[in-house]
Amino acid sequence: MKPTLLTCVIALSFCACKPSVRLNGTWKLLTGTTITKGVSEVTDYTKGQEFIKIINDNHFAFLKHDLNPARDSSNHFDGGGGSYTLTGDQYTEHLDYYGDHNWENKTFTFTVSLHGDTLVQRGMEKNDKEGIDREIIERYVRL
Q1: DSSP class of residue 3?
Q2: In CATH, what number is assigned to the domain containing residue 84?
Q3: Residue 14, domain member (yes or no)
Q4: Residue 141: its pLDDT value, please?
Q5: How many Cβ atoms sit within 10 Å of the Cβ of residue 99?
Q6: Mean per-residue pLDDT for 21-45?
Q7: 4-13, 38-47, 48-57, 123-132 — which is least confidently predicted?
Q8: What is the domain range of residue 113?
Q9: Which phi and psi (to 5°) does residue 3 adopt?
Q10: Cβ contacts of residue 84 below 8 Å, gap of 6+?
């Protein structure tokens, strides 16, 4: 009888654990909000540009480009990626690759939540070399 009771308690404790958010897939960034020293700035990533994030079991990559590119050097493409960990709703990116090397080898931790096909990622973005210390909130839709 005791082994059965112990087995039930163990099984129930696993059921009580909060499951991780399932992030695998391709996500389109809709809006990004930065909050710096109490001042908010919202960027609409559906106008004039496109930004996607691709996430597999242990790596992520992001790509951004202008939809109406100039025919000169002002045409901007941006991309980067690396590995990540996900524990419950805590998503931690380890940025291994990026065009601006001041951002490489940095770690950023976010709280993520899923609402239907919408992913919300919220956390702090800090880079002493760039003088950046701000909160970011990104809203993605699954493609």
Answers
A1: H
A2: 2.40.128.490
A3: no
A4: 99
A5: 10
A6: 96
A7: 4-13
A8: 21-142
A9: -60, -35
A10: 55, 58, 59, 60, 91, 92, 93, 94
Other CB atoms within 10 A of residue 109 CB: 12
User: Which amino acid belongs to residue 51?
Assistant: F
Alpha carbon distance 80, 52 (integer Å): 11
Domain count, the chain: 1
CA distance 121 to 115: 11
Task: Answer yes or no: are the C-beta atoms of 24 and 112 closer than 8 Å.
Answer: no
Judge whether 51 lies within some domain. yes
Q: Do 95 and 83 form a contact (C-beta atoms < 8 A)? A: no
Note the pTM of the prediction, 2 decimals.
Answer: 0.82
Express each pLDDT in 68-102 by its tens digit. 877 766 667 899 999 999 999 999 999 999 989 99
The DSSP output letter for 5 is H
